[in-house]
């Protein structure tokens, strides 16, 4: 058997059973940049601001954000240890397979995949909403769609489809361009937030008091005030939990990153830390500018209503434009991360049609996986064409919930398995030491709590036994996630447990040399 001598990154990948097929052209900063871009405070903070405003008000933002961020950072530290030990594109599901066996890997992979597709869908749909609002302010008329008259749900969906196509094309034709855009995105988010802060400080005629921002509560949910602390306020936490997600991207890009054992774990936790810090400052500035509470409530509590009521038309346009570009960067990175996970999961024969999703073009980009991701994102967002209740985009928040639930369940499974393995786990160069014993346990419990919260109805009309029940108000996240668990569970019992044995290695590692392993055909 002929062998080649790999570098440290290729050697570690070979030890895990894979050849270096993807192009290892990403720096440590680029690895950090993709997770920071996917978290994108210019996306999540603006598009889901209304969820916190309506369900808790200022305290859900000023107090809730830093508290929930601490729990998310705990999850990130636990994941950093795992990616240092196993720097593969499969990321989370690969860790679960290694630590718990094929069944754990199977379910983790599907939760992760659905969560990543929902990330693409929610980010690009939110971006389409902001683009449509900006075009409305500019009175753009393109004939087929007249944004000057306001964009309908169908118009927004067309913009959404175009954004998906743009992100697919960028990902397909240049991995180097994606890495460059991610690097640019970091500075865009930092300088863009700085510019927005200046506008929000000097633009409004007045600002809210410190007392309003840090102590006031708002309940626009429709549920009684008696449910505020244990039901309504937790729904507002979706702002933080959704915004700071998708940081597993640093793991999925680890096979394309130099010095992955050190760079990838740092990319995970640093992206969460800096996003939490900068995002909190941005949200505080936005909330201090929210002086016209009645106008904001009439605008469904969204950030656009805050900007419209607090700023001049020109200032509002600048803020929305900065946010739109940040969201475009975010969606592009989401497609990259989701496509790499699709590629890795398909490489291990877990997704039907895996031969298509694992094909690489001349740029070493998984074209089929990219097209798979954007197509699925388009499909799961179809309810947004009609699902609006009392001015609240229920379908959008449902997709957001699917994203959070799917991803965080996928995060928690290997974190729990690592805790269960205890000292038998072989850590990489970046690890949590003995602190894993409480960190992993607390992180797992937290994910269980938020999973329950974000499966709950957002409005009383979504409660089945309510006289005013309406299907247009239903949070379909539990139906989607529950349906997924049932489907892949039955699939596992009927067939997959006989055919899916976990990661399929494609090379053998022997000392300093690598050679091609015998191919095992699995469908």
Number of helices: 23
Could you tell me the CATH topology label: Amino acid/polyamine transporter I
Could you give a short account of the major beta sheet? 2 strands, antiparallel
**How much is the radius of gyration in Å?**
22 Å
Return the string of H and E elements: HHHHEHHHHHHHEHHHHHHHHHHHHEE
Structure characterization notes:
The protein is mainly α and 523 residues long. It has one domain: Amino acid/polyamine transporter I (Up-down Bundle), CATH 1.20.1740. It has helices at residues 8-15, 28-39, 41-47, 49-54, 58-62, 64-85, 92-100, 102-137, 153-173, 175-202, 210-215, 228-236, 238-243, 249-252, 260-288, 293-298, 303-310, 313-347, 354-357, 367-380, 394-421, 436-453, 477-499; strands at residues 55-56, 218-219, 507-510, 513-516. A hairpin with a 2-residue loop joins strand 3 and strand 4 (513-516). The longest helix is centred in the N-terminal third of the chain and has 36 residues, at 102-137.
Helix and strand topology:
Blueprint: H1 8-15, H2 28-39, H3 41-47, H4 49-54, E1 55-56, H5 58-62, H6 64-85, H7 92-100, H8 102-137, H9 153-173, H10 175-202, H11 210-215, E2 218-219, H12 228-236, H13 238-243, H14 249-252, H15 260-288, H16 293-298, H17 303-310, H18 313-347, H19 354-357, H20 367-380, H21 394-421, H22 436-453, H23 477-499, E3 507-510, E4 513-516
Antiparallel strand pairs: 1-2, 3-4
Helix pairs in contact: 2-10, 2-15, 2-18, 3-18, 6-15, 6-21, 6-22, 7-8, 7-21, 8-9, 8-18, 8-20, 8-21, 8-23, 9-18, 9-20, 10-15, 10-18, 17-18, 18-20, 21-22, 21-23
